[in-house]
Amino acid sequence: MAATAFAALPPSLRFGNESSDTTRINAILIDAVARGFASPQERTAHIARGFIGVPYQAHTLEGENEMLTVRLDSLDCTTFVETALALSYTAAERRSSWRDFVYNLERIRYRGGVMDGYGSRLHYICDWALDNIHRGNLVDVTDRLPHCRHVVRSIDFMSSHREAYPALADSATYARIKEVESGYRNHRFPCVRTVDLRKNDVQAALRTGDVVALVTKKNNLDVTHMGIVVKDGAGVPHLLHASSSSGKVELSGVPLADFMKRNPSLLGIRVFRLKE
Question: What pTM was computed for the model?
Answer without folding.
Answer: 0.95
